[in-house]
Amino acid sequence: MREPEALEPYRHWTPEPSPDAPAFFVVGVAMRLVKLKISSLRCFRDVELELSPGINAFVGPNGAGKTSLLEAAFVLSHGRSFRSGARDALIRRGERSLGIFAEVLHADGRLDRLGMGKDGVHWQARLNFEGCSVAELLGRCAVVSFDPGSHALISGGAEERRRFLDWGVFHVEHTFLELWRRYQRALKQRNSLLRNKQSDNALFAPWEHELDESAANIDRLRRSYLDRLAPVLAQSVATLLPELGELSLRYRPGWSEHGTLREQLASSRGRDLSKGHTTIGPHRADWQIAFAHAPAREHLSRGQEKLTALACLLAQAGLFSEERGEWPIVCIDDLASELDRAHQAALVEQLRVADAQVLVTGTELPASLDPQARVFHVEQGVATPLL
Ligand SMILES: Nc1ncnc2c1ncn2[C@@H]1O[C@H](COP(=O)(O)OP(=O)(O)OP(=O)(O)O)[C@@H](O)[C@H]1O
């Protein structure tokens, strides 16, 4: 029997960079990290940084802790690191907890004081010195990151692309998280029935009903986000990768568009019982990019994969600024080794035009950086501002 995803059609469309579409480097105002304080994160015991509203460069030898500073900023917006497998490794060896504190100045003048702490497995959040949910805190800070793992957005598994999509949806539509949790709860229940080899229709029906309802809303929000992202993405791709020709986007909801998810869940129970988990639904969604001159992923060089990922991140930041009125904070890990000089210069120029706050790392100061950049020397878990 063929895998269900092979049967599912991708929705496919070719976005036009329309003149009304927001430029992906919208001139505007940006969210800024004024202060970043971390304790017991990787090689850092305690560090407190006063950041520049423009470019902040962290320079130092390998293993000095540069990426870890970016990770701290990223956690405030994603609730996880951008490095895979970093879940437990974030806490400094020998310590039981870590803390990240930041002051975030919004474009409208609001100042948020964000605190995230991890004691063992769970994160706790504080907003303006009061306890709050992690979701509420993540909604107050937006960080996009371009790092050595970013090409996985193009060449990696679907999970990476779902995360990208859902981060974009969540930051505009805060109800998304609750929908997603509802879906996950019902999925867990159905998977538990499958693992216990239950086959009674009455046991499955309520969970499949719940899955169907939340899936329809998740799918609607994801489609709407991709529809809004597409013209901005077309523009950023045309700037960074003009040689690849017209862009097309594909979206797969995770189940067939013929019939409801509820019907398909009922008819896939036999297969799901043998696999021990639910094989269709929005947890299997995916989206992909193709180009006229590179119709398959395998046609892209590693550098082109990175540039495509960068175009996606810039488009996401541009759309965020259009919809939320402020540019996210941009982290770039190891700029010099990720992009050639021409693309480094193009990226730096775009971020300058957007007036975005940038946190960038390198073993040396990248030549393309503005001489006004604030430079920090990082070595053995100590970050020192250079005058
Ligand atoms: N949980 C941990 N506890 C203590 N030290 C850690 C922990 N995890 C990582 N480290 C150390 O912290 C440092 C973190 O390195 P990080 O990746 O931030 O450095 P970097 O300056 O970005 O390096 P590179 O230029 O090689 O990418 C490394 O020396 C690493 O060995």
Automatic annotation (TrEMBL):
Localization terms from the record: Cytoplasm
InterPro entries: DNA-binding_RecF, DNA-binding_RecF_CS, P-loop_NTPase, RecF/RecN/SMC_N, RecF_2
Record key words, sorted: ATP-binding, Cytoplasm, DNA damage, DNA repair, DNA replication, DNA-binding, Nucleotide-binding, SOS response
A Pfam family matched in the record: SMC_N
GO molecular function: ATP binding; single-stranded DNA binding
Domain RecF/RecN/SMC N-terminal: from-to ranges: 33-381
Binding-site positions, ATP: 60-67
Spans traversing the lipid bilayer: none
GO cellular component terms, A-Z: cytoplasm
Record's keyword annotation contains Hydrolase: no
GO BP terms, alphabetized: DNA replication; DNA synthesis involved in DNA repair; double-strand break repair; SOS response
Family: Belongs to the RecF family.
Cited function: The RecF protein is involved in DNA metabolism; it is required for DNA replication and normal SOS inducibility. RecF binds preferentially to single-stranded, linear DNA. It also seems to bind ATP.
NCBIfam families: recf (TIGR00611)
PANTHER family in UniProt: DNA REPLICATION AND REPAIR PROTEIN RECF
Protein name in UniProt: DNA replication and repair protein RecF
Protein source organism: Dyella thiooxydans
Gene name per UniProt: recF
